[in-house]
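Our preliminary data section would be incomplete without showing what the modeling component actually yields. Below, a chain of 146 amino acids is followed by its predicted structure, encoded as tokens that our downstream tools consume directly.
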Amino acid sequence: MHGSEGKDALHSTPEEDPRPKLMPRVMGSLAIVGLMIGLMIGRLTTPDPVELQQVETAADGVVVWFNSEPKLHGEHIDGTVALLFDAHGKADSGQLKVNEKDVNWRVRKTDGGLLLNLVAARPLRGEWKGEKADGRWRLEIHLQEQ
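Predicted structure:
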């Protein structure tokens, strides 16, 4: 029986190809370039994060300004008005008068975004309406006693 060693190159085992294998490198490079281009396009198309810019007191409520329209969830909980905004911003607090009675408001950060609480000694009802104004988003919150 004959072995497969190459005495005169007349055997059934092919010789080792001395050229480097380029196909895995080409496919890997294409995958990396595609990933980088996808990340750049994704970064360019994502909108700016919504940010709370300022809170102003009005005659019968509060006006809240954002750089763009936030997602909003509002509720009346035990006589208070609570609004949860999907936005970034800083914590703040203040006081206003509704029907000559004090109402305290407070903005604080939560896991879901920013929470605006409006609290008074008597139960409150609130109505809110948002609109685009001056290139920003303006949310008016009108309060009344129950």
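The two ends are 105 Å apart (CA to CA). The chain has one helix and nine strands. Preliminary results of this kind motivate Aim 1 of the renewal.
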